[in-house]
Design goal:
By secondary structure, the protein is of the alpha/beta class. The protein is built from 8 helices and 10 strands. The chain has a 5-stranded parallel β-sheet, with helices on both faces. Strands 2-1-10 form a 3-stranded antiparallel β-sheet. The chain has a two-stranded antiparallel ribbon with strand order 8-9. Strand 6, helix 6 and strand 7 form a beta-alpha-beta unit. The N and C termini lie close together (11 Å).
Length: 196
């Protein structure tokens, strides 16, 4: 089985093992969809290859946290996932949406998934803005949510990719190599136990 470890998380929770036939739902916006690379180079596709599990790409370019909240139940019921990777908020930041509304929407999504008795791993998004040339850092709401809702957080993986020009297809999206690095960071987080 796939053992989900929480070594790089802000919490100490350990998630249940995922069997070889487990389904992972990658839910998010253009970062999840894979804008800037071919479909087979998106992070969900590359993650699936790395860990040998089915990873459903449920990314919608341009989606805000509010759109994700509205879309989640139908996608979830179709996918019947054993684990959800949630990566949303970047478009909220780009549109300068109220930060507390973004936090509220993400909180509602995570709480809803947890009520379905399915674990969630949250991927932090840096505070992006058009024309931004400073040092990127993960938005603080992700650490707050991870602490409040006691869920694992992959805090720096996406920020590290988007801080490296060689890993980007454009100012706000990774290229194939960037998605590969993100997928590898997530795969490292999901420690595989061979059972031998």
């Amino acid at each position: 089985p796939l053992i989900v470890a929480c070594g790089s998380s802000s919490t100490s929770n350990t998630l249940p093992a995922l069997d070889s036939d487990a389904v992972i739902l990658a839910f998010g916006d253009s970062i999840t969809y894979g804008t800037g690379a071919r479909p087979d180079q998106s992070y969900p596709a590359q993650l699936s290859n790395l860990i040998g599990r089915k990873v459903i790409n449920a990314g919608v370019p341009g989606e805000t946290s509010g759109g994700g909240l509205a879309r989640l139940p139908k996608v979830f019921s179709t996918a019947s996932p054993d684990l959800v990777l949630l990566c949303l908020g970047g478009n909220d930041f780009l549109k300068r949406q109220d930060r507390q509304l973004t936090r509220k929407n993400l909180h509602a999504m995570i709480s809803w998934i947890q009520l379905q008795d399915v674990p969630v791993i949250l991927l932090a998004v840096p505070e992006l803005s058009f024309g931004f040339s400073g040092t990127l850092k993960p938005a603080g709401i992700y650490r707050e949510l991870a602490a409040d809702l006691k869920l694992p957080l992959i805090e720096n993986a996406l920020t590290e990719v988007l801080s490296d020009r060689s890993l980007k297809a454009d100012p706000i999206h990774p290229n194939a190599q960037g998605y590969r690095q993100l997928a590898e960071a997530i795969a490292d987080y999901l420690t595989i136990a061979t059972g031998r």
